């Protein structure tokens, strides 16, 4: 096996347990690999702001963050990799939603910023979950001056399902996927955690085969496959476990720390 020079890990369902907490054992394991000059990098569908507190608690604020499923890799204020949604697709989506699905909440993410066109029940709930307050702006004006790394559309389940089917016919360069039954996410179709992994490897001047990755869900598959050692959590679906090089304990049993302690 090639020596592991960098560790990249998913957040929810991987380093966070089912109570959305991190263990002291994990913090200690990350501290020990840091002493061996092995950086620990977070990779998530979350925004950079949504990972900031976690990186602070793990004392990995000097490491890059791979956000929005790989659409953005950022280290503090330095952008390492960026693949925004094409503006034409964003304009089509916003126009379609206004006419066809006006009650769907539109969340626009650009680097560290979160914008909405109005505060409604769905936005307020997302704000409570993330502990971040979005800025209310005219999104149509905003997209001419900001890169859009992700759109998050939230509504009733039936409405979101219908919107997904409708928008699939409208967009040309974007990927549409459900992260929850009523959460429809939009990123550029080339975005994946594998592209983020390649950017991280280039940043550290290593190959992806010198990286160990941890994940628990379908969006983690590309980086589990591309890494030298891809580790699936025991709480992952069978399809995710099948592509992994190793399977560790669950997120509730310190699965990440269990493997890091071997390094």
TrEMBL record:
One of its GO terms (cellular component) is cytosol. This is HAD superfamily hydrolase. CDD domains: HAD_Pase. PANTHER family: HAD SUPERFAMILY HYDROLASE-LIKE, TYPE 3 (PTHR10000:SF8), PHOSPHOSERINE PHOSPHATASE (PTHR10000). It holds the Pfam family Hydrolase_3. InterPro entries: Cof, HAD-like_sf, HAD-SF_hydro_IIB, HAD_sf. It comes from the Bacteria. One of its GO terms (molecular function) is magnesium ion binding.
């Amino acid at each position: 096996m090639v020596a592991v020079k960098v560790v990249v890990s998913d957040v929810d369902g991987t380093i966070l347990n089912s109570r959305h907490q991190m263990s002291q054992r994990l913090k200690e394991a990350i501290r020990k690999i840091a002493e061996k000059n092995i950086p620990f990098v977070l990779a998530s569908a979350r925004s950079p702001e949504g990972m900031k507190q976690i990186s602070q608690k793990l004392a990995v604020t000097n490491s890059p963050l791979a956000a929005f499923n790989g659409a953005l890799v950022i280290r503090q204020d330095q952008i390492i990799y960026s693949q925004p949604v094409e503006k034409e697709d964003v304009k089509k989506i916003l126009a379609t939603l206004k006419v066809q699905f006006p009650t769907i909440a539109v969340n626009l993410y650009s680097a560290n910023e979160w914008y909405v066109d109005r505060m409604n029940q769905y936005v307020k709930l997302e704000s409570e979950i993330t502990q971040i307050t979005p800025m209310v702006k005219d999104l149509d004006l905003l997209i001419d001056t900001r890169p859009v790394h992700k759109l998050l559309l939230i509504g009733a389940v039936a409405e979101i399902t219908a919107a997904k089917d409708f928008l699939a016919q409208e967009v040309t360069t974007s990927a549409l996927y459900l992260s929850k039954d009523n959460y429809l996410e939009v990123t550029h179709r080339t975005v994946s955690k594998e592209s983020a992994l390649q950017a991280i490897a280039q940043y550290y001047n290593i190959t992806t085969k010198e990286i160990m990755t941890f994940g628990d869900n379908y969006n983690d598959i590309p980086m589990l496959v591309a890494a030298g050692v891809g580790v699936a959590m025991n709480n992952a679906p069978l399809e995710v476990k099948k592509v992994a090089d190793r399977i560790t304990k669950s997120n509730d049993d310190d699965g990440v720390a269990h493997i890091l302690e071997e390094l």
